[in-house]
Amino acid sequence: MLGSIYEYELPFIRTGQEAEITLPYEPGVVYKGRISFIYPYLSAATRTVQIRIDLKNPKFKLKPEMYVNVMITTKVGEDVLQVPDNAVIRTGTKNIVIMALGGGRFKPRDVVLGAEGEGVVEIKSGLADGEKVVTSAQFLIDSESNLKEALNRMIEARKSSGEKEAPKATPGEMKETGKEAPQAGTPENQKQVMSDVTDAYMKIHSALVDESPAGVKTYAESLAEAGQKLKTEKRVGAVKDVVETIDRTLPGLLSGDIGEAKASFAILSRAMVKYVEGPGRREARAQGIKIFYCPMKKESWLQTGSSVQNPFLGKDMLVCGNEIKY
Q1: Burial of 325 (0-12, 13-18, 19+ CB in 10 A)
Q2: Distant-in-sequence, close-in-space partners of 268: CB < 8 Å, separation ≥ 6
Q3: Which of 102, 163, 245, 307 is 20 to 30 Å from the Cα of 264, by its Cα?
Q4: What distance in Å separates the CA atoms of residue 256 and residue 253, rounded to the nearest whole number?
Q5: What does the pLDDT look like over 89-123, one tens digit per residue?
Q6: Which whole-number Å values give the CA distances from 29 to 26, 59, 68, 96, 319, in the listed order?
Q7: How confident is the model at residue 42 (pLDDT cuts 50, 70, 90)?
Q8: Environment class of residue 184 by beta-carbon count within 10 Å: exposed (0-12), middle (13-18) or buried (19+)?
Q9: Of 13, 139, 17, 154, the residue nearest 88 (C-alpha)
């Protein structure tokens, strides 16, 4: 069996390592094999290296050209600093942990991440051994608050105190900060229209996965209609960004060219991710909407379901992507 390993994963791959193979349609069944060969060349198009995995194939359930999921167990290092992955707030441009200083005091801290797996993430810099972090940082801030605004307020408060101590804050006070932010809540009428926007977005995503320019164009027209409805409302924050981005990306989505459509969808996705991480978080999570990130294109997108459906790279690279928790 052949597998594809991303360029940045190569330092952790060795021959002889055990690999676990699962089929998307056969949950709970695990096939075990070992890496027998790492090919000595890199694909310029996909930035991946192929590996060969030897395994038993009882009843010939594994067929040629079939896609499977592969998990390879590797040892990152003897002594590394790790935190639970839900302690990290990922804003898209930086990674932040919330320091717990005691006495109801908190402070945001930028960190550089390393390898991730099994619910933990390596911290390469920004944090020292023994320092305490909040292990559910994303839930400290109200689900409908403006994350960026809340963190900025904490930083400003720390600066105003002369950097000598972090501002006193409690989860409740942080929620209150979110309520003061311009996009703390979305009016009910706008929520309904944003639901229509999200629905059209999801259908465009499916059309891109199928590489159907006609489908993209059809659902882009629905997106345009929903965008027009939002223009009649007073819009702030992430909702305003979505409306403005719809206007900017419609020409590409309606062009009938799959390449232009993908480029426009990437821009639209940035605004939609911002909305989902902010005022639309509660509704998005209730609908099972997830955020995925493509390390090759360095772009994020929204989708439902756990099976990765990358809209940017084509049918041969649909499974390229990592889920980003929010």
Answers
A1: exposed
A2: 201, 245, 246, 249, 253
A3: 307
A4: 7
A5: 876 667 888 888 888 788 888 999 887 766 788 88
A6: 6, 14, 12, 37, 20
A7: confident
A8: buried
A9: 139
pLDDT band at 235 (very low <50, low <70, confident <90, very high): low
pLDDT tens-place string over residues 252-301: 999 999 999 999 999 999 999 999 988 888 888 888 899 999 888 889 99
Q: Which residues contact 164 (CB under 8 A, 6 or more apart)?
A: none
Q: Which amino acid is present at 69?
A: N
What residues have CB less than 8 Å from 131, skipping those under 6 apart?
99
Backbone angles phi, psi at 215, to 5 degrees: -65, -40
What pTM, to 2 d.p., does this model score? 0.48
Cα separation of 303 and 324, whole Å? 11
Please give the full DSSP string across 85-96, using - where no structure is assigned. Answer: GGGEEE-SS-EE
Contacts of residue 7, Cβ cutoff 8 Å, sequence gap at least 6: 42, 47, 48, 49
Would you say 54 and 65 are in contact if contact means Cβ atoms under 8 Å apart?
Answer: no
In the chain, the amino acid numbered 8 is Y
Cα distances (Å, whole numbers) of residue 241 to 186, 221, 227, 238: 13, 19, 11, 5
Strand partners, 292: 301, 323
Per DSSP, the residues of 129-156 read TT--B-TTGGGTS-TTS-HHHHHHHHHH
